[in-house]
Amino acid sequence: MAATWSTACWSSVRKTEFHCSLNPSEPIHGPPWPGGSSSARWSGFNVPLKLRSGFEWLLEVITMFLVVALTVVVLLGVSFRYTGNSLGWYDEVAAVMLAWVTYYGAALAALKRAHISVPGFVYSRPRAVRMAMVVLGEAIIITFFVLLAIYGVYIIGVLGSSTLVSVPIPIAVTQSTIPIGAALYVIAELLNLPDILREAWEGRKPPSEQDIVEELQ
Predict the structure, then answer these.
(1) CA distance 8 to 42
(2) Fewer beta carbons below 10 Å: N end or C end of the chain?
């Protein structure tokens, strides 16, 4: 529900002319957008919103599972070390799990547009400059993570059948988070791209967390 609301109804937070309704029979009237109509039917948004909501749910489940698993591993490591029976695999496994949390969490943050940015500076520029900055920024981000995914697959191939030192887990498995996490990040950016371009075209900053909380109160 949060993903659906944030995607379709962000303009209501900014108190603009954009009208959002959860009634499937009621049209959604949006601001002018080049090459398109100023209004659209809710049914036209059903598939993208469901895809985004499902993708967000998947990332949240994976990230939460990894955080809980990492917490358990850390607690086990500390407990056994306290008793004088240190676990030989603790440091290596915990480091790998922390990297997994970082990659999957980064993709989730990208989908929620929670990474550090300076929207005030970007959206105070003229439209042409604003669009150029946004398009260039998105192109750099997507290109970087596409290359990261490609070289991540290459690294897995180079490592072959090598395993971790302390446990017989293939390094290819532990390093798989590089291409997978990068691919998930690219998907998150592509799902956000229509909203990002529309906001840049109209000069509207995306809603902050405080804006959403105030609107819901």
Answers:
(1) 9
(2) C
